[in-house]
Amino acid sequence: MSKNIVLKRGLDIPVSGCAELRVDKPMSPDLVAVRPGDVRGLLPRLLVKEGDRVLCGSPVIADKKNPDILLTAPVSGTVKEIVRGEKRKLLAVLIEADGKCEHVDFGTMNPAGMSAGEIKTAMLRSGLWPVLIQRPYGIVADPEASPKGIFVSAFHSAPLAADLEFTLGGEVEAIQKGVDALARIAPVHVSIDGALQSSAFEKLKGCQIHRFSGKHPAGNVGVQISHISPIFKGDTVWTVSLNGLAAIGRLFSCGRYDVSRKVAVTGPAASNPSYVEALPGTPVRCFSAHFRADDGQLRIVSGDLLSGTCVGQDGYLGWHDDQISVIREGTEKELLGWMRPFRIKQFSNDRSYFSWLMPGRRYDMDTNLHGGPRPFLMNDNYYAKVLPMDIYPVYLAKACLAGDIEKMEQFGIYEVLPEDLALCEFTDPSKNYIQDIIAKGIDLMLKEMA
Question: The pTM is what?
Answer without folding.
Answer: 0.94
